[in-house]
Design goal:
heterodimer, A: alpha/beta, 9-stranded mixed β-sheet, disordered N terminus, B: 406 residues, mainly alpha, 3 domains, two-stranded antiparallel sheet, globular
């Protein structure tokens, strides 16, 4: 059994000052991870930093006009991009309607490219979490500028902020929170085979790395096989196939060098896991929902194929990572970003639909992450590096159709402006991650174990994220 | 690429200048056509190049000691070299650059001039920010013409104390070992600073100008840490070789000649199930194919506290494609790949052991393991030498002895 932390907090009432959060939580944590049913988390990483200002767009007339005034040609350049159609003009935006969709009377909208996700928002399967980013403790413009609040290292640097999002530390971090979640559910006995507990379709990513769990990097083309291995003879040599296999496994290899050992271990893991995949993928069970033919669509497609066979693979808890790039729109944002947004929306929607088809939509939660947000200010035909950003959480378990967190007004020098509309995050990545971890079945102490920084924040900020 | 080739043995300051004015870099990092701030529209200069020229090309993010280790403050924390204010200021420097011999105007696009991609960008003064630019505690004065502003800004970066350790350590990582000792870095940094290196025979090389790269290469390759034969016993020394280097090594061994990348689609098409895992000229971002600080999660090197940059593109999704890519070439399974000839090993006189010794010398630098030798021996002897040498080659290019150097 588990105690739902939200209920606990509700029952107990208030929480203390920032430093007291952890102590409060630490007092009631006798429960280990609940892994009785199947659940998966899917991180959709938007490399380069997607412009959240241009995705969750101010919609009430006053805010829109302010926004339009600041963004200028980033909006007007899109006029008539399709005949008679201006995708960033207010009339063509898709309003986020319903309870919980406005902030202080201000309303918001998605661009047309996000229509597939707008439909999910409307039906309650997608939530927006506003102004999320890495912070060390609650911080405002005043405490940012005075330096009195601690801040994460290496702000605005792509590689480091990608790492901090995934692992709370700059480049070189050794384990991420997805991997720590996986460590915890593995220890709780969720999976009888750990090969596919933690899987990336986007290469090695520290998000998935645990202290113990070793992520598998899958090819979006599916199972891979080594040519000339499963034959009786190659170039007439009957001994070659067996020796080639041994070479790939580095059988009897007395590699003294750590780099050589690492290389051999990668080959061995690839060969063994792909043989498992080949056997499973040869059997029926793929979802029939068509995935977009993009990199992101293909990555989510292979993840869907894995999820469909979770019982065969012996897994009840999985964490996944997919990603796509091109969001670093310093220039040509009006021509570059809409297509990328369409890809996200089409791919994530198709993935959701395939989970519905499998009857697993409330067991699989996907969420976006990105290096950082971007400036509200325009530079040329693009925008620059920011900090906080708006994100999306999708799945049948999500209490969607609402905006959690905050979306500051489209203006400068408010309490959460680090300059030029680089948002100072109001929801810590630790808070965002913690709510996902709670849904995943982690106990409160396990959430803190995976996310030590969470203790510095209000644990209830996203308490309505899941049904 | 041409700039790198021409400048590899020149001065680092010249490389900085040539790269900054390259319209390809200008396009990639979006500062070609970068305009000064426009107070009527609120537009500000693009920060892209200002950020990456500091973070990636010259000084990095944190203050460094001359041995490449991070400086720490009194709380034991790393010290960041610059803030975003420095970036915003430096961004003003890189305004006004546009294609050569062409009227400035983003809407005009890339001009149809022959070889425009290799003609240095030119300055349009009216688009260059007239304001002063203060960054890293220095100031490029108000009103200084654009080219002079860029020159002064690059001088400031070049003179920064981080430059030599930041650049030198990464050059070492590319050439000899992923985790050089601080003392090794310091020795190379001293050569970078003085522009002089004394060869083992006493001859002095270098121009004596700070940033001269020729003596730096010599210092890296001839350093005792790199050539000491006891290094073989040090499990932490060395590096994984990146895929393109492994492939080129095979091509040289197999006498592949008249190579045109464009006539061998598998090399440039990274999306196949038999791809190398590193497509020449196509790193996915300015952060290159892999990062110098990459730690391969869960690996032996990670457990030893080591970075292993090349492992970022060597993982379970690329391991099998690499095997298939190499087999495609070694066995020349398609007309789209370059065939090698194996005249070298086939000309070896003597028995199988002599052939193995040859292969060990040219492919694994005398480090072929007993297990690999045994596999090679049996396989080579199972068929005629023409086929046997190909099979042996494929076994070797998949061995850790071939894919690493140490």
């Amino acid at each position: 059994m588990t105690i739902n932390r939200r209920k606990f907090i509700r029952n107990v009432g208030a929480f203390g000052a920032a430093s007291g959060f952890a102590a409060n939580l630490g007092s009631f944590n006798a429960f280990a991870a609940d892994t009785s049913d199947y659940k998966a988390l899917v991180c959709v990483f938007l490399f380069g930093a997607m412009d959240g200002h241009d995705t969750v767009i101010p919609y009430d007339v006053e805010s829109y006009n302010q926004y339009e005034g600041i963004r200028g040609r980033l909006i007007s350049d899109l006029d008539n991009s399709t005949e008679g159609y201006s995708p960033r003009r207010r009339d063509n935006l898709l309003e986020l309607a319903g309870n919980g969709s406005s902030i202080d009377g201000r309303t918001f909208a998605f661009p047309e490219e996000f229509r597939p996700l707008h439909e999910l928002y409307a039906q309650g399967d997608l939530a927006v979490v506003g102004n999320v980013g890495p912070i060390v403790e609650p911080i405002t413009r005043a405490t940012f500028e005075s330096g009195s609040a601690r801040r994460p290292p290496r702000l605005f640097s792509h590689n480091d902020q990608q790492s901090i999002w995934q692992a709370s530390q700059p480049e070189g971090a050794r384990a991420g929170w997805g991997g720590r979640f996986a460590d915890i559910v593995e220890a709780a006995g969720a999976n009888s085979n750990s090969t596919f507990t933690s899987v990336s379709a986007a290469g090695p990513r520290v998000f998935l790395q645990g202290e113990n769990i070793q992520p598998f990097q899958i090819s979006s083309s599916g199972a891979q096989s080594v040519d000339f291995l499963d034959v009786n003879a190659h170039l007439n040599s009957s001994v070659f196939p067996a020796h080639y296999r041994d070479a790939l496994l580095n059988a009897n290899g007395a590699t003294s060098n750590l780099f050589g050992t690492d290389f051999a271990n990668v080959n061995r893991a690839a060969l063994e896991a792909n043989e498992l995949l080949t056997a499973q993928f040869a059997m029926p069970g793929d979802p029939v929902t068509q995935m977009p033919n993009s990199s992101l669509g293909s990555q989510l497609g292979v993840i869907a194929r894995l999820i469909a066979r979770n019982a065969n693979f012996g897994v009840k808890r999985q964490v996944f990572f997919v990603g796509t790039g091109g969001f670093d729109t310093h220039a040509n944002q009006p021509t570059e970003l809409p297509g990328l947004q369409a890809d996200i929306a089409d791919s994530m929607r198709a993935f959701h639909d395939s989970m519905v088809e499998l009857g697993l939509s409330d067991k699989v939660t996907s969420f976006t992450a990105s290096d950082f947000g971007r400036t509200l200010t325009r530079s040329g035909s693009g925008t620059d590096h920011g900090w906080g950003n708006h994100h999306f959480v999708m799945g049948g378990a999500v209490n969607g159709g609402r905006i959690l967190g905050n979306i500051p007004p489209p203006e400068f020098e408010h309490d959460y402006d680090a300059g030029q509309g680089r948002l100072i995050p109001q929801i810590a990545v630790d808070q965002y991650a913690a709510s996902l971890g709670q849904w995943f079945g982690l106990s409160d102490s396990e959430v803190l174990e995976a996310l030590p920084g969470f203790g510095n924040f209000d644990p209830t900020a996203l308490s309505n994220l899941f049904n | 690429m041409d700039i790198m080739q021409e400048g590899a043995f020149g001065n680092y300051r010249d490389l900085m200048e040539d790269i900054t004015y390259s319209p390809l870099m200008g396009t990639w990092l979006t500062y070609i056509g970068n305009e000064k701030a426009d107070s009527t529209t609120g537009g500000v200069p693009d920060e892209n190049y200002a950020r990456e020229v500091m973070q990636l090309f010259t000084i990095g993010l944190i203050e460094l000691n001359q041995d490449g280790t991070p400086k720490l403050d009194s709380d034991g924390q790393e010290i960041e070299v610059y803030s975003n204010d420095d970036i915003t200021e430096l961004a003003k420097v890189f305004t006004g650059l546009w294609w050569a011999d062409t009227e400035f105007g983003v809407s005009l696009g890339r001009p149809a001039i022959p070889e425009i991609d290799v003609l240095p960008m030119e300055m349009t003064e009216s688009q260059h920010s007239p304001f002063s630019k203060s960054f890293l505690g220095e100031t490029v004065p108000e009103g200084l013409p654009g080219d002079q502003s860029i020159s002064m800004a690059l001088d400031i970066l070049f003179e920064h104390p981080n430059l030599a350790p930041f650049v030198s350590k990464q050059l070492i990582q590319r050439m000899t070992t992923s985790n050089p000792s601080p003392a090794y870095v310091r020795r190379v940094v001293e050569v970078f600073e003085t522009g002089l290196y004394t060869l083992p025979d006493g001859q002095i090389v270098g121009t004596g100008v700070r940033g001269d790269l020729a003596p730096v290469w010599a210092a890296i390759l001839l350093d005792n840490e790199a050539i000491d034969e006891t290094r073989d016993e040090d499990k932490t020394f060395g590096k994984l070789r990146e895929p393109i280097i492994r492939f080129v090594h095979w091509a040289r061994y197999a006498n592949v000649s008249a190579v045109e990348v464009t006539n061998s689609p598998p090399v440039v098409n990274g999306a196949t199930t038999a791809s190398l895992g590193q497509t020449p000229y196509r790193s996915s971002s300015v952060f290159n194919f892999y990062r110098p600080g990459f730690v391969a999660g869960g690996s032996e090197t990670a457990a030893a506290g080591l970075v292993s940059p090349e492992m970022q593109i060597t993982h379970t999704a690329t391991a099998i494609t690499y095997a298939n890519f190499m087999a495609n070439y070694v066995f020349q399974k398609s007309t789209k790949v370059w065939g090698g000839d194996y005249a070298g090993p086939l000309a070896v006189s003597g028995d199988t052991e002599a052939v193995i010794e040859y292969l060990d010398l040219v492919l694994t630098a005398g480090r072929m393991s007993e297990a690999t030798r045994e596999r090679v021996r049996e396989t080579y002897e199972s068929v005629d030498p023409e086929d046997g040498i190909k099979l042996a080659t494929q076994l070797i290019v998949m061995s850790p002895e071939y894919t690493t150097q140490h």
